[in-house]
Amino acid sequence: xxxxxxxxxxxxxxxxxxxxxxxxxxxxxxxxxxxxxxxxxxxxxxxxxxxxxxxxxxxxxxxxxxxxxxxxxxxxxxxxxxxxxxxxxxxxxxxxxxxxxxxxxxxxxxxxxxxxxxxxxxxxxxxxxxxxxxxxxxxxxxxxxxxxxxxxxxxxxxxxxxxxxxxxxxxxxxxxxxxxxxxxxxxxxxxxxxxxxxxxxxxxxxxxxxxxxxxxxxxxxxxxxxxxxxxxxxxxxxxxxxxxxxxxxxxxxxxxxxxxxxxxxxxxxxxxxxxxxxxxxxxxxxxxxxxxxxxxxxxxxxxxxxxxxxxxxxxxxxxxxxxxxxxxxxxxxxxxxxxxxxxxxxxxxxxxxxxxxxxxxxxxxxxxxxxxxxxxxxxxxxxxxxxxxxxxxxxxxxxxxxxxxxxxxxxxxxxxxxxxxxxxxxxxxxxxxxxxxxxxxxxxxxxxxxxxxxxxxxxxxxxxxxxxxxxxxxxxxxxxxxxxxxxxxxxxxxxxxxxxxxxxxxxxxxxxxxxxxxxxxxxxxxxxxxxxxxxxxxxxxxxxxxxxxxxxxxxx
Length: 556
What we know:
Radius of gyration: 28 Å
Strand order of the largest sheet: 5-4-6-3-7
Low-confidence stretches: none
Strand content: 5-15%
Number of helices: 20
Structural class: alpha+beta
């Protein structure tokens, strides 16, 4: 009897754990079923939470708030670590058009909110809450409530109105983003697999594919010239790994001198190899990799923390061990191993040399799969702490009565992106194995949606059945769908935006982690997260500002 009393007590820890696990587990199971041929995915957790909340099966409010926010932090932080290494290159390449699309979604949503107020008669204090819920943006709700406190006082009943509008509009806000993605796919008859392959190919354009070439020295001007002094070689992103002189193949060093008739093996982009061929002489029929010698190749993983941030030139592997590094692989991208390349945790180097020498060099680099799979708990906790602090910092903007904050969603995401780009600081390494990252993301988003459903379920049906509630739901649906469909259809029709990137932009324009989780599942890839993170910072700022500005303009 005591056991059941404890489990049924809404204030007890066993009750909270049981309800959270039941909702999340049943929701994930529900998401596996197909509805009209479509998996609802992670959104199944939200639906299950709404059902539990409607029947009064919930948990302590303070515990619920903590679990919801902590789950959100885990999700966005793991996303930031994942997309961070490629975020800045993506921003330079295609960030402007993607951010224009996202900003357009935000501005159209604000426009629809004004229509809801002036034509639909929705009170401003409720309209800003409906806007926050329809765009699934909790920080903007907090900003609106703060602005209302400054206008009417902290104890005014009006301050409670945005929260109710948010709760009513939020569920369809999540569903509406998902429906928009599905609608765009259907209208344009998009094949996700083909779009994913195309997006993957485009994302590799900044790192041209590497080729190898065997070149015979016929240029007499190169006689006696060290390989390191070959004209244009340092700037050509080409590495010479082997050289054959008088029938003997050896590891190439910068000090190795050339002679007519020598054959070299070079690695680099195709165009650079063509340029080098014109300097060296001509292509050789020999392949030095097939000529018998005591030279071998081996891939070595960088895992030793003491060498992180150092360049290949600083490590002097050629001078110390007589090995040459020909290729460096990072985040599935392959580069010619130029001397100025700095090493990051998890880089893979292709080494050329005698086996014993390679083993000695590998010891310097670490080459420990065990260390590579270490989840790095201390850097994780440090990063989350810094992210929460950063998200809580007030950002003062002229003209606004109260400072704005990036919140628990924006702060950890931006900090994680920066830390993933930095890679390491002293003994702290911001690297997370793929399996650990996936586990944290799924756990985080499941906890977040479970709590959102439990919190919204109690008043959802009641508000929905009231006259004003129906109006708010319909206007919320319009605020969700109209901007997404207008921008999404225009981006696909006029700009030919890749569907993989478009899904990330639509989710990011609404700052909606559940929609990103659905997009990742829908595309069977994590690549939508890249465009999501590209537009997220600007979108978050615009979302937080927009509700405050609406309150200030319409109520002052």
